[in-house]
Write a structure and sequence with these properties.
There is one protein chain. The protein is α+β, with helices and mostly antiparallel strands. The protein has 2 domains: about 35 residues; about 160 residues, no CATH class. It contains 3 helices and 9 strands. The strands form 2 sheets. Strands 1, 4, 5, 7 and 8 form a 5-stranded mixed sheet that branches. It has a 4-stranded mixed sheet with strand order 2-3-6-9, with no helix packed on it. A hairpin with a 2-residue loop joins strand 4 and strand 5.
């Protein structure tokens, strides 16, 4: 009889303990506050926004860029948007200043073996000096030379229009979405890449 009572008491204690633990967890969950969701790169960083311009109908476009404290284009990956082989490229960038966009171009880069249509390729550091007075920083492909000798240069007016649309007014401070891969090209120099060739790594 005593054994039965002892077992019953232990069972009641276990149930009570489980109840206390369960309620304690619920209280802890109710009192734990998650930080607000960050909707903007600028909301979590004191420095300028780092923006990769989208360049529809251009033979190449940046897909990834890495920004160091001393070089704002420390590493870049671009993708060919043309069927024809790319033999050289230049990167461009613009500091967004109070008076407008200040455009610059890097040195000519010649990828080893060229870049086949639709392939991705790396571009080395550009030694882009940081500027304390820049509100934002825009990176883009400035120049593309194809194997047939065709040279395409970025339209700075289009880069400015892209920035105005993506990152000013009601869109100021929002994260810019990465380029869509594959992107439909209509009038790109060298022709569109063949189906299944877009987005490959070299």
């Amino acid at each position: 009889m005593e054994t039965h009572s002892a077992r019953r008491l232990c069972l009641l204690l276990l149930v009570a303990a489980a109840y206390v633990v369960a309620n304690g967890c619920l209280i802890a969950q109710d009192s734990f506050k998650l930080p607000p969701v960050v909707h903007s790169v600028r909301a979590s960083h004191a420095g300028p926004g780092m923006i990769e311009a989208q360049q529809p109908e251009f033979p190449a476009e940046i897909t990834i860029s890495n920004h160091g404290d001393k070089d704002w284009l420390q590493f870049t990956q671009a993708i060919s948007r043309t069927r024809t082989e790319i033999v050289s490229v230049k990167l461009g960038w613009a500091y967004v200043l109070a008076g407008g966009l200040d455009f610059h171009a890097g040195e000519l880069v010649t990828p080893a073996g060229g870049v086949a249509g639709g392939n991705s390729f790396p571009i080395p550091a550009q030694n882009v000096a940081p500027r304390a007075d820049a509100k934002d920083f825009i990176a883009f492909v400035e120049e593309v030379t194809l194997v047939d000798g065709t040279v395409s240069n970025a339209d700075h007016a289009k880069i400015t229009a892209f920035y105005t649309m993506c990152c000013t007014g009601p869109n100021a401070g929002k994260v810019v979405l990465p380029p869509v891969i594959p992107r439909k090209q209509q009038n790109v120099a060298g022709g569109r890449p063949a189906p299944g060739r877009q987005g490959r790594q070299t």
